[in-house]
């Protein structure tokens, strides 16, 4: 199967080379990899140049956006800029972070999953991070059927069906909800272990703490589901502050009458799906 990769990159000099080498080592190589250098101020640009000069699958795109690393808007803006350089001749498209190491057979297995299940829309593995003793352990705070935003692969039909990626916090949740709304399946493969070189969220701006609640508003969760989801998140993070930040973000967005990421029909589907999952866990 043919696939493209787009990698948004901002000040990744410590990790980028490892990521790109893991792409070069794939048993099923991509047709093209777009390296979107988003306003980097370190040696990221020279690292990109060293790879593009030696390997034709890599193509560089320089863009200038905000220097702040805010989850959602900055990274998806960079992704979309890179995606615009590609044609539509692909079986699946991959949004990849610049601080991970993939198993050598990662995309060969991903392609097998897409080939075996025509309704499969989004596919990926699981993130592993080093703990204090240097051991690689799984870090998957969401449900096990959720594909992390660091390495999402979308079938061409699914990507088109969901209208691409939303330029906002919550993009890597709403994409899966819209995929399900459009009849696509989500699959994770526990045998695909991705090494994450930088702990999740370490590079994010401190002003991003309330954006999760805003994202829940934008996905039309409603207040009650937002409260339940925030309690779950606070419990996993062992931080009551994250609960109040979520609620504050939700209420601020509601009072400002912010725009939604989904329409009313999609929002109704999302709430029904959330309630179904909540009840399933309660009565499990």
TrEMBL record:
InterPro entries: Glyco_trans_2-like, Nucleotide-diphossugar_trans. One of its GO terms (molecular function) is glycosyltransferase activity. Keywords: Glycosyltransferase, Transferase. Residues 5-142 form the Glycosyltransferase 2-like domain. Gene3D superfamilies: Spore Coat Polysaccharide Biosynthesis Protein SpsA, Chain A (3.90.550.10). CDD domains: CESA_like. Belongs to the glycosyltransferase 2 family. This is Glycosyl transferase family 2. It comes from Maribacter arcticus.
């Amino acid at each position: 199967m043919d696939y493209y990769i787009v990698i948004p990159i901002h000040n990744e000099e410590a990790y980028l080379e490892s990521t790109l080498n893991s792409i070069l080592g794939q048993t099923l190589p991509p047709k093209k990899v777009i390296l979107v250098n988003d306003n980097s101020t370190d040696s990221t640009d020279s690292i990109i140049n060293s790879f593009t000069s030696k390997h034709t699958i890599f193509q560089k795109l320089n863009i200038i956006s905000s220097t702040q690393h805010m989850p959602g808007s900055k990274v998806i803006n960079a992704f979309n800029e890179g995606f615009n350089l590609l044609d539509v001749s692909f079986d699946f498209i991959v949004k990849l972070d610049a601080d991970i190491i993939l198993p050598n057979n990662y995309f060969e297995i991903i392609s097998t999953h897409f080939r075996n299940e025509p309704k499969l829309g989004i596919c990926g593995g699981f993130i592993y991070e080093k703990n204090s003793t240097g051991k690689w352990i799984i870090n998957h705070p969401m449900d096990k059927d959720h594909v992390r935003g660091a390495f999402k692969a979308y079938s061409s039909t699914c990507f088109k069906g969901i209208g691409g990626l939303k330029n906002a916090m919550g993009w890597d949740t709403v994409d899966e909800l819209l995929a399900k709304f459009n009849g696509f399946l989500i699959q994770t493969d526990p045998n695909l272990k991705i090494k994450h070189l930088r702990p999740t969220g370490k590079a994010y701006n401190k002003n991003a703490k309330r954006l999760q609640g805003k994202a829940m508003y934008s996905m039309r969760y409603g207040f009650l589901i937002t409260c339940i989801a925030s309690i779950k998140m606070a419990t996993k993070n062992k931080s009551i502050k994250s609960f109040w930040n979520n609620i504050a973000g939700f209420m601020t967005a509601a009072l400002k009458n912010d725009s939604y990421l989904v329409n009313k029909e999609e929002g109704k589907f999302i709430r029904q799906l959330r309630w179904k999952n909540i009840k399933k866990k309660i009565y499990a």
